[in-house]
Structure formats: structure tokens, C-alpha cells
Write a structure and sequence with these properties.
The chain has about 300 residues and is α+β, with helices and mostly antiparallel strands. Helix content is about 35%, strand content about 25%. It has ten helices and ten strands. The strands form two sheets. Strands 1, 2, 3, 4, 5 and 6 form a six-stranded mixed beta sheet that branches. Strands 8-9-7-10 form a four-stranded antiparallel beta sheet. A hairpin with a 6-residue loop joins strand 8 and strand 9. Bound molecules: L-homoserine.
């Protein structure tokens, strides 16, 4: 199962907009043998649980139970993780959607996007990363009573620079620093920008993106949690980034740039800001993608067909 990194909010689209990034966690699911086990390579190698406290395995088992499907005698997960944890890049959404899609495949079902998205959103508590991870591309999601409504759009492949400063904090902590109510003028400012962010990303219009990927609700508080972050947002713009947003609840920042040269210059500028603030930071040059979570058949012949993804 390949599950993508996602960036949520995209400036003004707090809790509703999401976008997939071409950075993937891959989980091999092996049903031979007996007992369950988890191996983790890459991100989270020394911290993630290897037992059924592991989010991918826990989600997989819970979904099998929900489907009334017997747990297989042997269940070996091998996770190759590239998405950093607690970084604002949707690592928990990736784990949840991977577990859900694995369960549906193990159960021999053809999973529906709607079912996977509803389960992932309820596990996550907010649906923006989950929507992007399931649907791929640019996504908008809203609550509809107890349900959800969503749409997704393809976007051109856009180069981005993602900087992840150390000092990871949880999404819960980053939500706790937000006020319970906001001034009407700030809400209105964000409302006007959201459809324009969607249009700018769909068209790859970086000039427009630079004018509207601006937030009045959550970024200021989150930038304040990491030394150097407020300055980094300004410096990346000065170095040529078209737009810079806090990725999800942070601490990562995502900068949209015109091309590879722009990515190099902005990446260096971001690394320098955090270094001079005494904060170590990892810079990744990535790109957007239109693909969401999907299953590929393994060498030993998985039950899923190559390229399986949830159906609409
Ligand atoms: N919309 C969520 C937040 C995303 O900003 O708290 C968390 O990744």
C-alpha cells in the first residue's frame, strides 16, 4: 500500500483544503506465516510501536473486525516510512488510510473512496489530510451534519520546498493554541481567499497563489511555536517563493516555487534562517501529485490488482 504525504490548510483553508505531495510511505502486507508483526524502516524507526499499538496495524485490524472479516493467521507488515512524524505532513492520515486500504484488500473487497474517507476522517478527527490522502490532488472537504461532502481536482505538478524544523509537537497541541472564536473580519478574509487558492493551484497560477495563500486564523499562533518560523516565512518570500504556508498544523512550512532553481535558492534560505535561530531543520524539495493511496501487487502476488485504489 502506498500512502502519500499531504499538506493541509494551504493558508486560508483551515480544516478544509488538502493537497497530496509526491512523498510516500509504503507498507508491504504479507499474509503468509503465523502471528502478527510490524517492521519499520525510515521515519519513526526507533519510536513507532511494533505491536498492535502501531497505527497501520491497529487500523487494519479494527477495520477487519468492523467488516466482520476473520483476522488472518499470519499478518506481517513491513513499513518503509518517508513521511516525518508530527511534522504537519499528514503522517497519521497516511498510516490510517494505509491500514484501511490494506484491510479492505485483505477482506477481498473493492473499497469505496467514500467508505475509506469517512473512516479515516473519523479516526483523524478532522478530514483535510484524510481527504487528500484518499482522493489525491487538491481536495476540499466540509461537514454535512454527521457526514462529509468533498471534491477533488487535478493540479499541475508544482515544485515545492518543505522545511521541517525540529521540536515536533502534536496536532493536538497545535490546535490547543488556537482561540475558540475569531473576529468576523478574519473569517471573511479567509473565506474570500479559499476559492482563489483552489483556482490558483488548479491553474498553476503562482502570482495569484502569492496573493491569496494568506491566512488570518491559525498560522500566526503556530509560527510562534517554533523559533525562526515567522522569519522563515518572510525570508522564503524574499528568496523568490510565490507563496509560503504552514503545512497542516506545522511545524513544517511549504513554499511554492517556480522551478528547480527557485527550489534550491528558497531551500538554502530556509535552512539558513533556522540554523541562525539555533534550530535544526530538514529541507525537502518535493512536488505535488494527483495520486492518492493505492495498492500495488507485490512480488509474491498480493490480492490487490496493480494500481488498485478506492473506487469513487
Ligand atoms: N487542519 C488541521 C490543523 C491539519 O490545522 O490542525 C492538521 O494536520
Amino acid at each position: 500500500v502506498r500512502a502519500p504525504a499531504t499538506t493541509a490548510n494551504l493558508g486560508p483553508g483551515f480544516d478544509c483544503l488538502g493537497l497530496t505531495l509526491d512523498l510516500w510511505n509504503e507498507t508491504d502486507v504479507d499474509l503468509s506465516g503465523s502471528g502478527s508483526s510490524v517492521e519499520v524502516e525510515g521515519e519513526g524507526h526507533s519510536t513507532l510501536p511494533r505491536d498492535d499499538g502501531n497505527l497501520v496495524l491497529a487500523t487494519l485490524l479494527a477495520r477487519l473486525d468492523e467488516l466482520g472479516c476473520e483476522r488472518p493467521a499470519g499478518l506481517r507488515l513491513r513499513c518503509r516510512n518517508r513521511i516525518p512524524l508530527d511534522s504537519g505532513l499528514g503522517s497519521s492520515a497516511a498510516a490510517v488510510v494505509a491500514g484501511l486500504l490494506a484491510a479492505e484488500t485483505v477482506a477481498g473487497r473493492r473499497p469505496s473512496e467514500a467508505a475509506v474517507l469517512r473512516s479515516a476522517a473519523s479516526a483523524e478527527g478532522h478530514a483535510d489530510n484524510a481527504a487528500a490522502a484518499v482522493l489525491g490532488g487538491l481536495t476540499a472537504v466540509a461537514r454535512d451534519g454527521d457526514g462529509l461532502v468533498w471534491r477533488s481536482w487535478a493540479v499541475p505538478r508544482l515544485p515545492v520546498v518543505v522545511v521541517t524544523p525540529e521540536g515536533h509537537y502534536s496536532t493536538g497541541e497545535a490546535r490547543a493554541c488556537l482561540p475558540d472564536s475569531v473576529p468576523l473580519a478574519d473569517a471573511v478574509a479567509n473565506l474570500g481567499r479559499v476559492p482563489l487558492v483552489i483556482e490558483a493551484l488548479r491553474q498553476g497560477d503562482l502570482d495569484l497563489l502569492g496573493r491569496v495563500m494568506v491566512d488570518s486564523l491559525h498560522e500566526r499562533a503556530r509560527l510562534g511555536l517554533t523559533p525562526g518560523a515567522t522569519r522563515a516565512q518572510h525570508v522564503a518570500r524574499e528568496a523568490g517563493a510565490a507563496a509560503v504556508a504552514v503545512s497542516g498544523s506545522g511545524p513544517s512550512l511549504i513554499a511554492f516555487v517556480a522551478d528547480d532553481d527557485g527550489a534550491r535558492v528558497v531551500g538554502e534560505a530556509l535552512a539558513e534562517v533556522f540554523a541562525s535561530a539555533g534550530v535544526s531543520a530538514q529541507v525537502r524539495r518535493l512536488a505535488t501529485t494527483t495520486r492518492g493511496v493505492h495498492v500495488t501487487a507485490g512480488a509474491a502476488g498480493g490480492r490487490g490488482d496493480a494500481g488498485d485504489r478506492p473506487t469513487a
